[in-house]
Design goal:
242 residues, Arc Repressor Mutant, subunit A, mainly alpha, Tetracycline Repressor, domain 2
């Protein structure tokens, strides 16, 4: 390994260490309380060195967003290689997203950060903004492809437009996962408690609604349960038991 390659490797290792330190602090204190001084201290780097890698807090969180969305996309892409009907692919994509948000609260927080700060001056100066946006588009295309496969194999109703349906599924699943995230990580969020609804019941209801809504008649179960609902019941993601 040459000198330039070694320096680049060391640089990437330090960048990874800084990101991991920021992720730990988000888990401990929440995204709103993330502080660059504390990140530098946790990573054991000088504040000046920290700013060589990340311009500001926004840049740092977008760096985590890029890491998170890359991880999620890698798992989602595997679904398209599975020898299963498109309807089942859509199910697995949804479950992957639910599990990801539950197991990586700090990553989900960073991904939500993109929505609030993508149009700010600090974000516009971040090299990670475009990468995060590209990852989002890639994830969307995976969902579109799964739906197209389902329409071709007869498991998903072909009267829908694939891209429109993908957008509807993405936006609704994002909302459901967001509610679950707040329920598990924001002590002030009492919506589910106030209406007496458990996470488990909410997820099963969502699975039933979506599964019955997009499946062809032959893909629906005779007992009126959707594939999504019965698979969720059988496999259990563990999200409601956190």
């Amino acid at each position: 390994m040459g000198i330039s390659e070694r320096k680049e490797r060391e640089k990437e290792l330090k960048r990874s260490l800084i990101l991991e330190s920021a992720e730990e602090l988000i888990l401990e204190k929440g995204l709103d309380h993330l502080n660059m001084d504390e990140v530098a201290e946790r990573a054991e780097v000088s504040k000046g060195s920290l700013y060589l890698y990340f311009n500001n807090k926004t840049d740092l969180v977008l760096g985590i967003c890029h890491k998170a969305s890359s991880m999620l996309n890698a798992e989602s892409s595997k679904v398209l290689t599975m020898d299963i009907p498109g309807l089942e692919m859509v199910y697995h994509l949804g479950i992957n997203y639910l599990q990801f948000a539950n197991q990586h609260a700090e990553f989900f927080s960073a991904m939500r950060f993109l929505e609030s700060y993508k149009d700010t001056e600090n974000a516009k100066n971040s090299s990670y903004l475009e990468m995060c946006t590209n990852n989002r588009q890639e994830g969307f295309r995976v969902m579109v492809r799964a739906i197209q496969i389902g329409m071709q194999d007869g498991s998903i109703n072909s009267s829908f437009d694939a891209e429109e349906l993908a957008l509807l599924l993405w936006s609704t699943s994002h909302g459901v996962v967001g509610i679950a995230h707040m329920h598990n990580n924001a002590s002030h969020f009492k919506l589910l408690d106030n209406i007496g609804l458990s996470l488990d019941k909410m997820f099963k209801g969502y699975m039933k609604l979506i599964g019955n809504g997009i499946a062809t008649e032959k893909s629906k179960h005779s007992d009126s349960q959707s594939f999504f609902e019965t698979e969720y019941e059988a496999k259990r993601t563990g999200l409601a038991n956190k």
